[in-house]
Amino acid sequence: MSAWTAPHSSLRWTEASPTRFVGRRAERALLDVAWAAAARGSRQVLFVGGEPGVGKSRLLAETARHLERNGAAVLAGGCAADLTTPYQPFVEPIAALCPALTDGSLALRPSSRLSRDRVLAILDTVIGTEGPGGSPSDRGYRQEVFDAVVETLVAAATAQPLALVLEDVHWASESALDLLSYVVERTPATALLVLASQRTTAPDRSVSLADHVSRLYRLDSVHRLDLAPLDLEEIAEYLVHEGGVPDDRAPEGAARMRERTGGNPFFLRELVRDLGAGGRDVLRPDGPAPQSVQDTIESRVRTLGAEARAVLELAAVIGDVVDTDLLLSASDAGPAETLEHVDAAIDRHLLEPRAGVDTLVQFPHTLARQVVLDHLPRARRTHLHLQVAQALERPGPRTSTRVRQLAHHYDHAHALGYTAEAVRYLLQAAHLAEDALAHDEAADLFVRAAELEPDPGGADDARLRAADCRILAGDLPGARELAESVAADATSPHRLRGAVLYEESSWRSARPSSRAVELLTAALAPTPEVPDEPLRVRALAGLGRSLVFDHRDAEAAALAAQTIAHARRLGDDALLVVVLEAGLTHGHTPADLPRKLERAQEVSHLCQRTGDLWHLGHAAFHRSLIAYLTGDDHGLTDARADLARTSEATRQPYFAYFAGSVDYTRQFVTGHFDDARRTSAALLELGATLETDGTTGPWGVQQYMLRRETGDLESVRPLITGEEDLHAAWAPGLLTLYQELGMADATRRALTWLVADELARYASTVGGSGVLALLCDAAVAVQDEDAAERLRPAVQEFSGMNLVFGGLVAAMGSADRYLGQLDSLLGRGDPERSFAIAEHMDASMGAPVHRAETLAAHVLHHRRRGPAGCDVPALEREARGVATTLGLPRVLRRLDAAEHDPGRSRHPDGLTDREVEVLCLLAEGLSNRQIAGTLVISENTAANHVRNIRIKTGCENRTRAAMYAVTHGLLT
User: Fold this and answer.
1) Each residue's pLDDT tens digit, 718-732
2) How many C-beta atoms surround the C-beta of residue 796 within 10 A?
3) What is the three-class DSSP state of 659?
4) Do 659 and 617 form a contact (C-beta atoms < 8 A)?
5) Contact criterion met (CB below 8 Å) for 538 and 576
6) Contact criterion met (CB below 8 Å) for 652 and 474
7) How far apart are CA 740 and CA 754, in angstroms?
8) Rounded to whole angstroms, how far apart are CA atoms 398 and 486?
9) Sign for the pseudo-dihedral over CA of 399, 403, 408, 409
10) Residue 612 half-sphere exposure toward CB, CA atoms < 13 A
11) What is the 8-class DSSP label of residue 74?
């Protein structure tokens, strides 16, 4: 096997920038430091930004030449403004490496999950060598595409330290930006320097790029380098060396040039070139002064003859870089004349040769090309696009790159009667982008084809293909808009399909609405039934899911059962996965969990068999939630693994969010609170990319729980009055804050309102069970027995399970712990059994934070009701040991308060304060109803107290109870 020889990529700049390079000393020093670190195996990334013409490309060119002279391998690529290609600007670098990968001079690392043949097959789609009509194999998921690129770059960097130069990434597609982020994230210990240039000024500034870069800044060795205009000293140096200005006149000339150019290096270069052509009078105060670089370029264009100008205009329509073979084929002039006109443009610095490639010329800067385009009448430009398109149609390899060029030029020429050609090539380009898993670009191409397609049915088909791609790209609002435009059209043959896609893009966004029900119902109504039976089954399953969000649960459940049975009869596994997934939305009570788990497990089994990770991810989310609820630690681990696998493969942020929620839960319940804080912050940032009502609410709950457990709530005390409007805020949050801050009256006020008016919202629903935990804590803290009595049935329904907020927003621990506390307060049930069940649950989940809470609650129970044969000091030592080890000041405070409660053992026979109050009222001869009215409790609660008093004191009737009160001095 021969050793790899890196291509001389820096040649692309050799002739393009023959003038003197001045200034940028600090920037070059920073680049040298970055390269030194990269060469040692620590990947470095610099985003070089600035306005157009500020010298970004020139700085990268000088750096590339310098690095290549010092033993680096340099690979370069760029993006074009008007011909977006999936995965630009990686096309050229990867194309340069493919031959070495093919002949074996570059070897993949042994740990690569992909074979060389698989990598090469995937890279064909990245660089666009495969054309339509081929046999695209299974492309897998986007992670495979990204991994193939990373493995190839790592192979090159392993053979020779590598500099990857990417120009104009502000024009990169969304897929390319995702790939760039992935390359940066996955190469921390690689001898790789990534240099990416970007425009940071309007109108070219890319919001999407800014979002990607801001997330990458969290990583080590990712930096931003913004270029400022040249200063007076640097301009003077340039004038001396390139303009032939005497040293003594250079400062004066620099001031004039700074005033005219703003220190923009490209404008400066072009003006100085004019000086060299006899324009030195420009330095005189009264000399001619071009107002902009546009004026400079225009003045040169005017010196060309009409035919030469026409060739230059044709070149501008072709692009920044011009294939002279294509130019010759498209030109109205003969080959010899066309080449002469190219030479004339080169002489005037309007074009320049592309070093190392004889068949390419390029504009010296995108600004120069734009000046030419801006002065083209619309009709003339349209005809030139047609000339280029027809030249591309001539015999030659029909690669995906050529298909995209044909789509671009016919699109711009469609007004001349070439709509059919434009639509055909736009659809071909869209399908090629789909093959490359470039979902955003595919969607854009399908949308454009739909805009031009004269046949309504064909246009709607293209729109729905675009909607599919939008869903895969995570653009759910865009998918909904496209799908609704078809579903709402009663004349469309694709109406039902549109309604199905609308519903799918709605539920995934966590923003379902009755609109999905309306569209599906209307689309399903026509008779006879839709011939595409699987589509109809899918629509009915979606309707069932939508009805859940419309609170029509019975109808929803019936449709779920019907569609699942229908899919089984059809024997269609893919359809079965879809309808089972829709069925996961049904059922929100503890009794529904077994059926929901069974469906989620079947979906997972089918997906594992077929490799369908999209549906596996949603099933894994439901499995993770059910696993925590039921205390299945192994199930939680398995579900998290499936979520991580799906997130990595699909690159969809909502799967990463679900996986992160599992991580947060584990970190919290094991007492790794610093890790939990970091994960919560990452989830907040990740949630900002999702189309939901926001993740600040879940983040707020998580932050509160972290502060509560670590004793960090005092800082908010000055902000809380206790008189807050319960209707204007999240009342359960205020309740628990009042309780933790010791505001007993405010706690009672909030608890009374919540139990009376809001309990039904949270009782029996899995997602609301976390609120039950807060209500129980508050009822026990203020000893509100009436509230405890009303809470008990709701908590009892969750016995044997954990309580939770939403989809693992916050883990509250075993329901039996809360049940034991309520029973201890009420003096009923079997608290010992409840605490034993809770401790078993805590142990099976490996959740020491939950265990500390359970042990403390158990201790407090015995402080309230007496030892009853329990070694309470030993139990308390165990609770304190766990709480001290984990750093749980809240648990320790609760134990301290119980230990120093002066009233905890002053009453005989373990009577509670409330039971003594009831006993005294009994001695006064009051009935249960009168006692309830006096103490503002329910009559049922009063009867329970009377029963407990009789059990504890052994008094068989009220008379004996009255005597007991007198004998023990309880009457005052």
Assistant:
1) 999 999 999 888 999
2) 16
3) helix
4) no
5) no
6) yes
7) 17
8) 33
9) positive
10) 19
11) E
How many residues are recorded in the chain? 972
Task: Let me know: does 864 contact 785? Beta carbons within 8 Å.
Answer: no
Q: Residue 888 gets which letter from DSSP?
A: -
Q: Is the pLDDT of residue 208 over 90?
A: no
Separation between Cα atoms, residue 210 and residue 181, nearest integer Å: 12
Average pLDDT, the chain: 88
**DSSP 3-state of 643:** helix
Paired sense of beta strands 73-78 and 360-362, if any = unpaired
What integer pLDDT is reported at residue 528 of this predicted model? 56
Task: Write the DSSP symbol of residue 8.
Answer: B
Residue with tokens 């129980």: 776
| Amino acid occupying residue 772 | L
Return the structure tokens found at 530.
């839709």
- How large is the average pLDDT for residues 947-953? 80
Instruction: Give me the pLDDT at residue 1, please.
Output: 47
Radius of gyration of the CA atoms of the chain, in A: 36
Model pTM?
0.84
| Cβ-contact 486, 492 below 8 angstroms | yes
| Assigned token pair, 581 | 């997934």
Distance of CA 391 to the CA centre of its chain: 43
Instruction: Determine the straight-line distance between the first and last CA of the chain, rounded to whole angstroms.
Output: 102
Nearest to 831 by CA among 928, 948, 740: 948
Convert 135-170 to b/e letters by CB count within 10 Å (16 or more is b).
ebeeebbbbbbbbbbbbbbbbbbbbbbbbbbbbbbb
At 626, give phi and psi (nearest 5°). Answer: -65, -35
Alpha helices by DSSP H, listed for 758-814, are: 759-762, 769-781, 785-796
Cβ atoms within 10 Å, residue 448: 21
For 813, the enclosing helix (H) or strand (E) is strand 810-814
Q: Are strands 352-353 and 192-199 parallel, antiparallel or unpaired?
A: unpaired
Strand order in the sheet with 162-167: 73-78, 162-167, 192-199, 44-50, 222-226
> Left, alpha or beta for 230 (phi > 0: left; psi -120 to 50: alpha)?
beta
Cβ contacts of 400 within 8 Å, gap of 6 or more: 125, 128, 129, 130, 131, 132, 429, 432, 436
Q: What long-range pairs does 839-847 form, CB within 8 A, spacing at least 24?
A: 841/631, 841/800, 841/802, 841/813, 841/814, 841/816, 842/813, 842/814, 844/631, 844/633, 845/628, 845/631, 845/633, 845/669, 845/802, 846/633, 846/669, 846/670, 847/669, 847/670, 847/811, 847/813
Distance CA 345, CA 352 (A): 8
Contact indicator for 666, 847 with CB cutoff of 8 Å: no
As a whole number of angstroms, the distance between CA 175 and CA 195 comes to 18
d(CA 540, CA 543): 5
